Each structure stands twice: as structure tokens, then as C-alpha cells.
Amino acid sequence: MLEWGFLLRGMLIGFAIAAPVGPIGVLCIRRTLADGRATGFASGMGAATADLIYGAIAALGLTTVANVLTGMSFWTRLVGGIFLCYLGVRTLREAPAERPAEARARGLLGAYVSTFALTITNPATILSFAAVFAGMGAANGVASYVDGIMLVVGVFSGSALWWLLLSGGVSLLRSRVTPQVLRWVNVLAGLIILAFGLVALGSLVG
């Protein structure tokens, strides 16, 4: 039963990191509007695959040094919580990107590969994963690579779920997608991330 807890935790991480509407999100929306739901979802899955790789790096690192992180849990939660609060506030205040990331795609495979390349070439993403993993206490209870794998599968599933909801929602509401709607998506994502940070900091005094 414990492994399913790591799966759920990973899904929350993947969803929270994928949800802010940045250039990749705008690209997915534009492709959905222009070429249909399948192309938009394929674009999102490219980003989800990059999230899978970064999640695997973070999870393997946590598994390898689980004992060290457990001994430093106060500091990892403190740093992770502060960073999460910063990231949440920044997301709340940040206007959605007005232009999509630059990429040319041909067909579903092209859409997938192009967004994968755009996401994987942004090494700053690993910092977000590390902060979220630490802030949510993802290292706590990680005793084997099975636990780490469940975390990674959860990250991919959570990210993929967001892109499925985004492409499907945009396809159904083509005429109603406005910058204001995207702004509220960022507000929701920012509140979720900020909540993670506050929970992490609150656990230090509990």
C-alpha cells in the first residue's frame, strides 16, 4: 500500500510543475486550436516525457542519498518550503506567456519531439523538481528503488493528466479561451504550489 502513496505524491508533483501556463503551455494551446486535440496532446506528452526524465533524476538522487536527506530533513524542508513559496507567489503574479515557444512541428511525432526538446533543454526544471521533492518530503519513507520508480511514474502520470485536461478543455472551449482564462490557470497553479510550501514550512514547527 505504501507504494501507492508514492504514486499519488508523484502525481501531485507532476501536475503542479506542469500546470503553470508558460511558453510550452501556450504552444500546446495554439496547436490544439490550430491542428486539433491530438496534436495539442502530443505536444504536451513531449513535455511530460521531459518531466519524466527530470523526475527520474530527482527520484534516483533521493533514493541514493535517502539516509543523508532524512538526517537533513529540517534543512531540506526549510529550503524547499521557502523556494516553493517563492515559486507559488511568482506564478500567482506572473501573466501567461503571450507567445508560444518557438518550434516547428510536422505531424504528431514532430509535435511530440519539438516540445520534448524545448523542455529537456531547460536545466532549470531540475531545480523545481528538487525543490518540490524536498518541500513535500518526498524523500521520507523512500526505502527502495521501487518507491523511487512509483514516484517517477506518478510524476509522469500527473504531468500527462494536466496536458490531457488542457488539450481536451481547449478543444471543447475553443471560442472561450482568453488571456483571462489563462491568468486564472496560473492563479490556481500558484495557489497549489504556495500551499505545498506553506505545508512544508508548517511541518517544521509541528
Highlighted features:
single chain, 206 residues, globular
Describe the 3D structure.
The protein has 206 residues and is mainly α. It has one domain. It is 79% helix and 0% strand. The protein contains nine helices and no strands.
Counting copies of identical and different chains, the oligomeric state is single chain
How many E-type strands?
0
Output mean pLDDT: 76
Largest sheet: none
Query: What is the rounded Rg?
Result: 17 Å
Which structural class should the secondary elements be placed in?
Answer: mainly alpha
End-to-end gap: 26 Å
Helix content: over 70%
Low-confidence stretches: none
- Dominant shape: globular
- Number of self-contained structural domains: 1
Instruction: Please report which band the strand proportion falls in: under 5%, 5-15%, 15-25%, 25-35%, 35-45% or over 45%.
Output: under 5%
Total count of helical runs of at least 4 residues: 9
SSE order: HHHHHHHHH
Task: Summarize this entry quickly.
The protein has 206 residues and is an all-alpha fold.
Please write out the topology.
Layout: H1 2-18, H2 23-35, H3 37-64, H4 66-71, H5 73-93, H6 107-120, H7 124-135, H8 145-172, H9 179-202
Helix pairs in contact: 1-8, 2-3, 2-8, 3-6, 3-7, 3-8, 5-7, 5-9
